[in-house]
Specification:
Radius of gyration: 24 Å
Number of strands: 15
CATH architecture of the largest domain: Alpha-Beta Complex
Strand order of the largest sheet: 10-12-9-13-11-14-15
Strand content: 15-25%
CATH class of the largest domain: Alpha Beta
Oligomer: single chain
Number of helices: 13
Helix content: 25-40%
Number of domains: 3
């Protein structure tokens, strides 16, 4: 890894490397010559204008839209007969299961400065100075990126940003790790090109710099040469100023009302729901509206700063029901919601529960503060709605007066917390 630093900071950086027993060396310096000069054993072996290097001609790799994308439209499945069984199938997905089985095997503490630990929110938070914290999130969604590389890849960046915003941070930078098959395959290169374009477009629009990254090609089966799905992995770092701005998923009785920020659309393509019920991996993935995403993120940041929100959680993989259960299980507190109160264009309960639409958050608030939130939401042109309340020890889902679901949290928790270890052991 290469770093360019201010010479005044050399001693500080060196101490950091020494602390972790990392080898390093100073290999050069920045000049005003507008030339790149490389010296080897006293001999100058390269002397080229920076303009020539920075603007080298691009290879026009052949790229074609994969034919499979033209056959990925899909009719809706029949509504499941048993909503309880369906929910447990979705929650048992390794992609949604609690990941503590993994991170508890490692030291995930940094001294005593890990303030929000893995599992407590969509991002972890580390104290770097008094009243100053860094939030870090890592996200990926190969199912969405396979069906729609452009919207899928930009959506991964947006989700990573929402996760750091949910802990009270202002996103300040992102990194990408792009994993693809053989770039000489025109289908693979088309998906790679769409991925790069979408990440660049969204980051430019939202105003977050990409400060580094890595590309890994030739990820394919050695015999069949079948490539992996387009798999961009995005990490976003955010800055929190003031401990009073820190938030987690944890519910508290002082803010009993559950509020949905943003609108839910009929976007189940590539969802964990479709995968869990054995439906074809197809359909329309969530479409990312850049402007809508920007406004929703700003609304949540502004509301946290003025102290309106208690618990905050991004709503994405697994849909509304998974995000709500994350909050309930970590808090050991039940909740009751009414699907008819959710801002949406959906006509079915499975769309409302499991759609993975972007630009959404679940938050909690005091009743007397909802009018203030409505005023903020009008300023940002983002819908907000009270969809339920917290309390008890059951998860209750209604559609107006119709009780669709009632589950004890302890029973659900056994699926959420145990399914990953069972999957890794081959028990499911």
């Amino acid at each position: 890894m290469l770093f360019i630093i201010n010479p005044d900071n050399l001693d500080t950086v060196s101490k950091c490397f020494d602390k972790y027993n990392l080898q390093y060396s100073i290999i050069g310096k920045v000049t005003d010559t507008k030339h790149v000069i490389i010296i080897n054993n006293g001999d100058m072996i390269v002397d080229l204008p920076t303009k020539l290097i920075a603007n080298a001609p691009l290879i026009n790799w052949p790229k074609t839209k994969p034919k499979y994308l033209d056959s990925k439209s899909v009719s809706k499945p029949e509504l499941p007969v048993d909503i309880k069984e369906t929910l447990l199938k979705v929650l048992s997905s390794p992609n949604l299961a609690d990941k503590s089985w993994i991170f508890q095997q490692y030291d995930h503490e940094v001294g005593t400065n890990t303030i929000v630990k893995p599992g407590e929110s969509g991002a972890s938070v580390i104290r770097i100075a008094p009243e100053k914290f860094i939030a870090i999130s890592v996200d990926g969604n190969p199912s969405h990126c396979y069906l729609d590389p452009y919207n899928g890849s930009a959506g991964v960046v947006a989700e990573a940003m929402r996760n750091v915003i949910s802990v009270g941070a202002e996103p300040i930078a992102m990194l990408d790790h792009l994993q693809f098959g053989n770039p000489s395959n025109s289908d693979v290169f088309w998906t790679f090109n769409e991925t790069i374009k979408s990440i660049s477009d969204f980051c430019s629009y939202i105003g977050i710099p990409c400060v580094g990254g890595k590309v890994s090609f030739y990820n394919e089966d050695a015999k069949t040469h079948e490539a992996i799905k387009p798999s961009p992995v995005i990490s976003v770092a955010g800055l929190i100023k003031g401990e009073h701005n820190l938030r987690t998923r944890k519910l508290h009785p002082s803010r009993p009302l559950i509020v949905m920020v943003g609108e839910t659309f009929d976007e189940l393509g590539g969802s964990e729901y479709y995968s869990s019920i054995g439906h074809s991996q197809a359909g329309i993935v969530p479409q990312l509206n850049f402007e809508l995403e920007k406004r929703a993120q700003k609304l949540v940041r502004d509301s946290i700063k003025v102290g309106l929100f208690g618990a905050v959680n991004d709503c994405s993989k697994g849909g509304l029901i998974h995000s709500l259960l994350q909050m309930c299980t970590i808090s050991d507190m039940g909740a009751s919601i009414d699907l008819s109160s959710i801002p949406s264009n959906c006509k079915r309960w499975d769309e409302l529960l499991f759609s993975e639409s972007h630009s959404r958050f679940i938050t909690t608030i005091k009743k007397e503060n909802f009018t203030n939130l409505l005023n903020i939401s009008r300023n940002h042109d983002i819908p907000v709605s009270i969809i339920g309340s917290i309390g008890g020890h059951d998860l209750q889902v209604y559609n107006k007066d119709d009780n669709l679901l009632s589950y004890d949290l302890d029973y659900i928790r056994s699926y959420v917390y145990d399914s990953l270890s069972k999957f890794m052991d081959g028990r499911i």
